[in-house]
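Just curious: can you write a single protein's sequence together with how it folds?
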Amino acid sequence: MKKYMIFLLLAGCGFQPMYSQRDTDIYVAPISGINGIELRNDLNAKFGGVRDASATYTLKINLHAPITQYKALESTGDATWQEIVMTADYTLSAGDDVIVTDTESASESYTFVRYLVAANASYNNAIQNTIGVLADKISTRVITETYRYEQNSSASDK
């Protein structure tokens, strides 16, 4: 019953979700490196598929190399906990209009063990998780900005 009440309240106020029935015509330009390929694939999935360069919006991203920081050390000086930090600079444009230029970063901690295979697996999982968080942050901002841009464009046309 509470769910229906909330729905009725939202329906009456003119609330409209940004993601509802919207075609996100966003071209994600190629990003260099293996991590860049993964980030581009994640973003294309969030935007509803791969678009070509003739899309309404173009997203260009410069993904920096991951930075590893030691977070915990044993008394012997061996690292047992590390953190991966990844940063991406991006520009969203519509034709010649630059809509937004910003930087996002994400981090993930992981356990660093002595066994090479396990250490590599932990590192790779941390990289994948960090790329996923970056994709979430960037896609949310990009969809918000495209929505705002379209609202401002339609308001100025009237």
Observations:
- The chain has one domain: 24-157.
- The beta strands are 26-28, 57-63, 67-73, 79-94, 97-111.
